[in-house]
Amino acid sequence: MEKIKTCVIGSYPVEVDALGFMKDYFDQKESHSWNKYIRTAVDDMIKAGIDIISDGQTRDPFIQLFARRFKGCRVRNRIEVVDKIEYNGPITVEDQKYVRSIIPKNRMVKGVLTGPFTLSKSCVDLYYKDEKKMAFDFANALKQEAELLEKHVDMISIDEPFFSNEMPEYSRELIEVITEGLGCPTVLHACGDVSSIIPGLLEMPVNVLSHEFKASPQLFDGFKEYSFSQSICLGSVRSDDPKVEGADEIVMHINKAIDIFGDKVIQVSPDCGQRLLPRKNAYQKLRNLVKAGEIVNGG
What we know:
By secondary structure, this protein is of the alpha/beta class. The protein has helices at residues 18-26, 34-48, 62-67, 93-102, 116-121, 131-149, 171-179, 198-201, 218-223, 247-261, 279-296; strands at 5-6, 52-53, 71-75, 79-86, 108-114, 123-125, 155-159, 186-189, 208-211, 231-237, 265-270.
């Protein structure tokens, strides 16, 4: 059995000097200081021993991160779609190139895209009056980002938290717009209790399914009812609770998954992004996740 890798979902709690950014803006200074925040997140992941690292999504919350850069969107109190959504150049690519430049050679990089359905459900539509068309335009824009991103990362994850609330009948086609033709492995992350949409998730054209198995242990029973081709990224520590799980508890959780899914379990991670946790708790959860992974892998 291939060794199980530890990874993060995306976000990591890093305190940003917002006043400093505002001062640079009003002083008309070109600010290149995001790298120090990305480095803080990446250094914690490296120190914890995580195999598959992200940029910590430090630049912006995951919705604004993409909407702010697409043509057709404007960010006010909420994101408003005021014209046709189109790609307007790289969004996360430089951040991932920077991550690649500062990590050890034996670590991997995960690029993260906010999913097109989640983007469409998070916006005020003042242009399309057609949610499906808007979602597919988001998907086409994200596809262009993915094609640039895949040259600099080891895998690309599409985050669709809204799937746990609503999964439209065109979900598979929406995700396929992004993943078709990509040369790197792809992941679909949908947090929350996805028990009711498991059949739809199993149709997704991705290599790995990533879900909250720690906060929603009923997913074990849900998924074991089906045969499926995808591998699993197993949510193994909670992202909604600052309580730090011990390594032994995480080992039991991972072994339960292996008993059910066997070698389909290829990655273990937090349930979701860790942005809302205190940094010291987020770090310790990652550290214990790595310890548990070492035990399960016989290290």
